């Protein structure tokens, strides 16, 4: 996996260098990105991060579109500086003019949401059910108190847990 992405990053840089007739500093590339984002360009660090799960599930489009999208951010930064809009005309110029790709701001990959646990708290109101995250539940265990805005009673853990 990393070899294909590294090769595509290099090809994008070579294409930009040919187009702009100048050299660009190559970025650090890592594969430690999770969640909904397919890739992220860290402009001041000259670093690219890619989501290995989304790459695995969408290889062809990811290599063609996502890698070029992120490289275009770094190229635009090196050419025009920090004051440009992330998906502004400079970035679009690179996507359309250099890579001959559509300048889509976001990917349309299907992202599987992970299941999360919710801890159910209640007050004395009839509709007073409050699903807490694991983090908030842990804070309660450490002594933090949460109150119902309506009845002002301290919320109590019911012992019930749900997965969403």
UniProtKB/TrEMBL annotation:
Protein name (Swiss-Prot/TrEMBL): SprT protein
One matching Pfam family: SprT-like
BP GO annotations: response to stress
InterPro entries in the cross-refs: SprT-like_domain
Domain SprT-like: 7-158
Annotated organism of origin: Phytopseudomonas argentinensis
């Amino acid at each position: 996996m990393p070899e294909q992405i590294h090769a595509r990053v290099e090809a994008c840089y070579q294409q930009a260098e040919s187009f702009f007739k100048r050299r660009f500093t190559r970025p650090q590339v890592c594969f430690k990105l999770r969640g909904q984002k397919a890739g992220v360009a860290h402009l001041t660090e000259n670093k690219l991060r890619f989501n290995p799960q989304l790459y695995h599930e969408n290889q062809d489009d990811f290599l063609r579109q996502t890698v070029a999208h992120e490289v275009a951010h770094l190229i635009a930064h090196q050419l025009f500086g920090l004051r440009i809009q992330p998906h502004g005309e400079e970035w679009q110029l690179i996507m359309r003019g250099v890579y001959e790709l559509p300048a889509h701001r976001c990917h349309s990959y299907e992202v599987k949401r992970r299941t999360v646990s919710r801890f159910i708290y209640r007050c004395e109101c009839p509709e007073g059910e409050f699903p807490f995250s694991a983090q908030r539940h842990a804070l309660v265990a450490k002594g933090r108190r949460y109150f119902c805005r309506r009845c002002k009673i301290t919320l109590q853990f019911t012992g019930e847990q749900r997965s969403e």
